[in-house]
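Researcher: Here's my situation. A collaborator sent me these components and asked whether they could plausibly form a single complex. I don't have experimental data yet, so a predicted model of the whole assembly would be a useful starting point for our discussion.
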Amino acid sequence: MHRTEFAIIGGGLVGMATAWGLVRQGRRVTVFDEGDIAFRAARGNFGLVWVQGKGVRLPDYARWTRLSASLWPGFARELEEETGVSLQLSKPGGLELFLDEGELDTHAADLKGLRDALGGDYPFERLDGTALRKLVPSAGPDVVGAIFGPEDLNCNPLYLLRALAQAVVGRGGRIVNGAAVRGIKPDSGGFILDNGGQWAAERVVLCAGLGNTTLAPMVGLEAPSWPDRGHLLITERLRPFLDHPTAHVRQTGDGTVQIGASHEDAGFDDATSAQVIGRIARQAARLFPVLENVRVVRSWAALRVMSPDGHPIYDESDIHPGAFVATCHSGVTLAAVHAMLLARLVAGDDPGIPYLESFSAERFRVPQAV
Amino acid sequence: MPNDSVFRRLSDPPDGEVTIRFDGQPVAAREGDSVAAALLAAGFAALRTTPAGGNPRGPWCMMGVCFDCLVEIDGVPNMQACMTPVREGMEIRPMSGARSLGGGDG
């Protein structure tokens, strides 16, 4: 029997950020990473640290997201110093561009409602087409306007995952690859994991993305989720032309342009569809006509981890204390709070965030008729 | 019925001569040469510099896989020299780092 203090189930961004946060506190941590058959949202995402629009229906989610974005620069600096890996974090300021005036009105009204709910503390700016093209000259004539979010950022998500993994190992954490955890049994205050071998853990943190839905009931938790498929395209490298990340198109630190933001309910199928690739490529060329003749060199699809309301789920088991679940689709955006605050929560400390209770899966429980 | 063969006999004497230009210099090439073959035969090894480190690179795989032979051909950036047959009067320029969006490698 192998032993560990903390078992982190899932070697994606949620698991690795939490694991790093724990090894930073001197805890003994083992991360269990399923292997290449896993859906691996952490290896397929868009790389945005995105604030604008999150939490329109749950202002606490906006608070949590903004807290993470504000901690991100310090988090990135520490991780970069520790590993020597550059995360290519951009300067702040992101844009959502609109081709339709009505959609822009709706989005602006949503953000204004959120600003009111947060007592006026929620910065964003509506730009008309002229103001936008002053800021981003390459935006096309069909773009009617944009929302500028001064707190939005972007980074290279693959370097982020690599840096976290390197930092976890560098501080004495272990990463066990290629052995999916199939069973978790509560056992005299701790937990026995079955991943082909047997591991005993004092505490267990479920960070397995869509896999949490199956794992959570083993320890008295629930983590409903569904896969929201997104397609991504990468172009050949270009000279810098786009300083600000946008919700659909961003230029990476290496010069390639990443195009994304499609949404489909395709079940557990992460194959690509030529139709969707064509649609998002055409949309990108309308937003930025300079991209019209640029070559796409890679494309893929990945599955977002969506809870029923799209907000994160964080819970500790009532029946089996010491078992935690963390499910979210924003592993990049929330990496900083996962490392700095979620890691303290699972270690038994009070992170001082009273509104974390809003993210309990309790909210999905429909009261039974008496 | 046989398929159209992908193999060709080397002809000697060559089918004919064309002149292309590399970075402004005239280069004699044989009809049927790829741009990469013509430039290698003329003694040009490095056709571009990399976007990542600015290091010189030249044709390597000669079969369209490695993308190390990228050049600008008649104003179109990032063309694979090994996959493009020469044509009389072709203007070829080295790729210097990442392409710009102005059309050429300017």
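Model: Some features of this prediction you could bring to your collaborator: The beta strands of chain B are 17-22, 25-30, 48-49, 56-57, 70-73, 76-80, 91-96. Chain B touches chain A at residues 51-52, 78, 97-101, 103 (CB under 8 Å).
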